[in-house]
Design brief:
The chain is mainly alpha-helical. The termini are far apart. It has helices at about 5-40, 45-65, 70, 75-100, 105-110, 115-125, 130-150, 155-180, 185-205, 210-240, 240-245, 250-265, 270-290. Helix 4 packs across helix 9 (about 185-205) and helix 6 crosses helix 8. Pfam families: EamA. This is S-adenosylmethionine uptake transporter.
Length: about 300
Amino acid sequence: MSRQAAFAVGGNAILAGILLMLVGDFMFALNDAMGKWLVASFSVGQVLLIRSFGAFFVLGPMLARQPVSALYRVEKPRWQLARVVLATADTGLFYAAVAYLPLADVMTFYMAGPIYVAALSHFLLGERIGWRRWLAVLIGFVGVVIALRPSSAMLSWPSMFGLVGSMSFALTLVLGRVLRSTPDATLVTWQTVGCLLTGALLSIGSWSGFSANQLLALLLLGVVSCSAHLMITRSLKLAPASLLAPLQYTLLLWAVIFGWVFFGDFPDRQTLIGAAVIVLAGLFIFHRAKVKDVEPLVPNDASHG
């Protein structure tokens, strides 16, 4: 193959990766909007339980192609368990938060994921972070405080759900880096099982009847989320993470649009300012990681969706 042909093939792969990332982010935002709609009628536990069954419609064919031993012969079992617990907390707390807060407000907390990851990677993975990135981390935290609103309201339960959920999300990402040699299907399967068991436990005493259409919507929630995850996983194999990582912020744009169109919510000025500070700090962290030749994590590697 000539150099020109190889360049064309590489360029097409990168373009495909970008498109898959954009579509995957759109589907995650759609999943978030669906989740907000469903938790208005059903408990968080019920949503977690039934969406997990829906996810297995996508996971089933993947699991059929790998040996059963891939599920139980895993590296670092304690870290695997910790990741399942954190990923389940991330998903459950996200749905608990959107039950009370606008989509864009909750997504603003989750967009701080790269900022938390940068700080946690220093302490948990021993990665060196220069003063510029530490400054960006500090500025990002300021953005979170602005979005939280520096008043008694920042201690409200919905805000705490969003904040703790986003931190669980960041820790899940860091553990994903620790467990990078574990097959993606295995990670997602145990993550889904964790949500299923937690959903079953939380559903006790808070179960609501549903129509056939509502059951379909609950199952579709899992299908959409799992499909989006697979798209983004594939995109990372086609294009560099440093190129794809900033595209995650389209999630915030879709959250604003879906929140406005479907729920009549539009973020106020304080939320928008906080979101802007977080996005700028996150983009700078990505930029410095690229300069230092460190591939940044894409938060959707372990999306809450």
